Amino acid sequence: MLPLIRGLLFQLGFIGSTLVFGLLVPPLIWPLSRPARYRVLTQWGRFNVWWLRVTCGVDYRVRGTEHIDSSRPHVVLSKHQSAWETVAFVAIFPMQTWVLKRELMRIPLFGWTLSMLDPVPIDREAGRQALENLVAEGQQRLDQGRWVIVFPEGTRVAPGEHGRYRQGGAILAARTGYPVLPVALNSGSFWPKKGLRRYPGTIEVVVGPPIETAGRKPIEVLSEAEEWIETTMAGIEPRPAKPSSEEPHGQ
User: Fold this and answer.
1) What is the CATH classification number for the domain harbouring 53?
2) How far apart, in whole angstroms, are the C-alpha atoms of residue 74 and residue 210?
3) How confident is the model at residue 1 (pLDDT cuts 50, 70, 90)?
């Protein structure tokens, strides 16, 4: 029962902070520059990372920080198990934006605020045109100095699962020549895809060596990133997706 109670308490703060940052903050910061708006709005993510630690005992540890070179933008290809990474990456990587489903932009409050951070929305039904838009808008963000976060599996996958890796992020990187940074993480063992339970412990985030893309085929870049991510995953997620008891785990 304890993980559920903790999860409910966290959810109250999560919803409350979303209302504040989605309804009250945007009108106040609209006149500010893009970097200033980014600094303010991403405090929502930082707050919820802190609130998750306070209410649910979920912390995180990053290995491979020496690979995060802030002197030039990267395309991050990351494992996606939980909502956690969409909240916490602002505290790990430099100024960034995200490739995401266009439908998210239509969510009241959340989507409107998200639009102020200039994400790269993708209409999955647009076929080839969606890919061209991804490359064009993604390059614009990279050229402006922002990192682009891509979840190549397209949706959250449960711990131990391996989704199909899509080429969009690799195509963006290969065509523009920006390096890829692969990321493995086990957030789904602590913040599951479904339900309100949150399980205490330390999320492992592992950042791999950058993958140079200039002159390479997207499929080669994607295969190298996928192999590194999935090989690394095997070493950081021995925990089951759904704990068999209510006892805290992962510590």
Assistant:
1) 3.40.1130
2) 8
3) low
